[in-house]
Amino acid sequence: MLQTYSNSQLKEREKQLEQQFKVACDAGLSLDITRGKPAPEQLDLAADLLSLPGSDQFHDDHGTDCRNYGGIDGLAGMKALFAAILGCETRDIIVGGTSSLTMMYDSVVRATLFGVPGGDQPWGQQGTIRFLCPAPGYDRHFEITGHLGFELLSVDMTDEGPDMDRVETLAADPSVKGIWCVPRYSNPTGITYSETVARRLARMSAAPDFRIFWDNAYAEHHLTENHQPVPDILSECRDAGNADRVLMFASTSKMTMAGAGVAAMAASPANLEDIRRHLAIQTIGPDKLNQLRHLAFFRDINGLRTHMTRHSEILKPKFALVQEILERDLGGKGIATWSNPPGGYFVSVDGPQGCARAVIELAAQAGVKLTPAGAPFAYGLDPQNRNMRLAPTFPPMEDIRQAMEIFTLCLELVAVRQRLSHG
Amino acid sequence: MLQTYSNSQLKEREKQLEQQFKVACDAGLSLDITRGKPAPEQLDLAADLLSLPGSDQFHDDHGTDCRNYGGIDGLAGMKALFAAILGCETRDIIVGGTSSLTMMYDSVVRATLFGVPGGDQPWGQQGTIRFLCPAPGYDRHFEITGHLGFELLSVDMTDEGPDMDRVETLAADPSVKGIWCVPRYSNPTGITYSETVARRLARMSAAPDFRIFWDNAYAEHHLTENHQPVPDILSECRDAGNADRVLMFASTSKMTMAGAGVAAMAASPANLEDIRRHLAIQTIGPDKLNQLRHLAFFRDINGLRTHMTRHSEILKPKFALVQEILERDLGGKGIATWSNPPGGYFVSVDGPQGCARAVIELAAQAGVKLTPAGAPFAYGLDPQNRNMRLAPTFPPMEDIRQAMEIFTLCLELVAVRQRLSHG
Description:
The first copy, chain A, is of the alpha/beta class. Chain A has helices spanning 7-26, 40-44, 76-86, 100-114, 139-147, 164-171, 195-203, 233-239, 269-282, 288-298, 301-330, 356-365, 397-422, and strands spanning 31-32, 93-95, 130-135, 151-158, 161-162, 176-181, 211-215, 246-251, 263-266, 337-338, 347-350, 368-369, 387-390.
């Protein structure tokens, strides 16, 4: 425990760490653990996609010529696959283009311009609009609603989802129009939403045009065999008499080719009808050949899940290495806690209050790029300046090892200096 | 000339045509010449795409791994290809997803929510917004601006583009924010914009946030060897000191696979910077594998143009057949005029005033589906109710022959009846 160190012990430790830091800087490294990108080895698993659907293969099971125009909401087979991923019915699904983030952006934009079922007016005509941002969370979610000029309201994340007492208090204000959620292996803390959180989200008092953006980005991205179930928010909302409250999203981006996958959403019949009405103006239809390509590759949900176990075999050693170094270098020192996620793409580290920015700057000096401090918070501002997000999927093992050793070194050095200056 | 027929001659002709019509109805046909879709034979020309880019082929010429995230505006090679199509520089291009229509919709939505360079305010905060719709034109263009609640102002089409006297008068009103243009082989009349029209569009007085939507949908879709050049509107606007006035669009949808092609836009540096700023929120980037697939298929603009001559070889006989039957059945009767387009996807027929809806209804009774009357006009309303759009690309020759014979029969029958009732 650093807290038990005397002043001279702290100074001694600072000296050691500074020497190590100098050695690290002299090594001239250039490492990056900032972004949740799949590694090339993961992409290699989907190599067959590069020559699919294959010559003369352009009809789906229903005889649709997937090369031509038509079909606003996707192939039946692709809908069925996403229904299995999202835990709903085929009829609940709209298949989109390559990006679920774009489907979310477009959904927010539609609500802003046209409103949503249950609302009297477009969001954009209701004065100041507010949105709930459970933090730490996914920066690109928050950026969408920030870009549109909504006021972002931070809500603390707990081990089972957002702090629901706070959410219920805030959502009672009719100017609050939605909440961003990553229900499984949440970015970055790795937690999965509990049944209780989902039930409270479904049942709480909120504006009739309030929407839960339920981004199940890591629906099939396990790192253990023990899969905690994701609450069935669509049924919860229906049972609560708030069927239109939730929009669910998923994509195959981190299953096949990132940025060249297939995305989809699921919602109530009224929401789907409303969305299709607008989609019919925005598009002639999504890329059916890419859907066919993915169907040929996965075949069905069992094929998809087998494929995802291959992903986890690649990722498990990387996440284990992160844990090993965190435990070895920081364990028992009382200066940091961290997540050990059973799935997803991130490890979240909480250092001493007020330290995150300094740690990330130091690491940058030693050639290790970390996600900017505050990124997982509304307006990019971590009120405690203590959270750091690690993304170990993309780099090779040796890069992770080096980057993690510099990260823990920098974190301890900043913590020691903080204690010295407080002393 | 029907105009020279006596009443009894008209009655005799009506009887003949009614008998033919009855025969046609009894045949129980079901034919469709409504939509500008490529024929399966055209799609077959791009069959290689179905197994491209091919195993282990996922890097572009610059070494980008096209399977992973990144790159907001497209591969350099794809930009170069679209620059050649649109007659501009590679740096002027943003590559998008599969659909240029979606890029146009998104551009209108962005202007509505955020405004555009040169404008003081978002379009959506400027009260009633108006948009110029040269008619007959492309229904899906008009629907975008109609859906967003803009007031649509019709402008007559001439043989060299929209009636520019009218356009200049209307555009002087700062509430008029844009115009829809298909500069080459315009949908449906097949005309190409003249240099004079382009120059006047570039130089006229208009709001600083006025935008020309220059949809070069048929840039490479020739039906003759004689290619009338498309005016260089981007340079015209720049030279006129209105560099930001135009947004150009194109796609490969009707070159490779409809709905699974690649789309792009081109604009001034200020417009591009503004668009990229918003795109960075809406997407992590377009499908680079589909771009790589198309680059592998076309190689360069010469490959693309060779490919498009194969398309024209399939389409020429279809368009020739339409002309043959129009001429044979209606020639010299003084009841209709029609286009003989040197490219594009449509033939436009003007019948007697007040007749189009009746002709299309009669044809439907005989099992021939035509584009709804008025579709090519703002609000779906042809003020003269005389224009009919034929789309002969998709059906096989024999279907076109049968459909055209019923179409000319119905047109003449309606014309004869009109003369009788006017007599």
